[in-house]
């Protein structure tokens, strides 16, 4: 069962598919954690299934069983987190698309993290996109479509995926009665919250939230340091919480110059910890704390 906002898109795609107008290259884009990858899988399953109903896979036919076993010969998956997609993988894609389907139906390629393609990979993909083949579908997923060459994006049917009205759905998934304050900041990215739950790092996120919303002079620098140094991707989350807090202070009437200075120091902190190798996290945190002191 897909989340409601994904279900709605699935139905739209089914509609165009039934009319024989489904584009050969679909680009699902939108914030991280909206479920793009799940929608891509669902569409891919529907396109490969022998007896789909409204483009939803039956789950029991031979094709579906092959999909479940992870070895359907007419499906190719490319792209993973934190690694770039090279030209060799796109050449493999070209070969895959070229040969006829082993199960006699459609062939589907799902490219996740499409915005991590190298420029030579993107060039190679362009060729494939320019020569569409019948019964061949490419489904690309990326967080930020502007990071892809315009030549690629313009040859795809672009679909923005937005998690709309996800609060109730998220509550159900989390088995809780209400959304916690920190979770309200991620209602647009509900799968991110679920990933954190699965990875059992929710308490870390909550600590970051509490810290960002507490008196900065009381920051436990060592605790923050060990958390952020171990998982630098959480720097973004911490800074999101901080920015939110600074905005609240701004709304309460704090002077503009001070607010702007503080926002700058948060931006600088992100830049330092993410782009400069070997940054001393503890020192950077101490400097951030120093510049945010007037916040509370
Ligand atoms: Zn099936």
Automatic annotation (TrEMBL):
The keyword Nucleotidyltransferase applies. The keyword Transport does not apply. It is an enzyme of class 2 (transferase). This is DNA-directed DNA polymerase. GO terms for molecular function: DNA-directed DNA polymerase activity. SUPFAM superfamilies: P-loop containing nucleoside triphosphate hydrolases. One of its GO terms (biological process) is DNA-templated DNA replication. It catalyses: DNA(n) + a 2'-deoxyribonucleoside 5'-triphosphate = DNA(n+1) + diphosphate. Keywords: DNA-directed DNA polymerase, Nucleotidyltransferase, Transferase. GO terms for cellular component: DNA polymerase III complex. InterPro entries: DNA_Rep/Repair_Clamp_Loader, P-loop_NTPase. It comes from Pseudoalteromonas xiamenensis. Its EC number is 2.7.7.7. It holds the Pfam family DNA_pol3_delta2. It comes from the Bacteria.
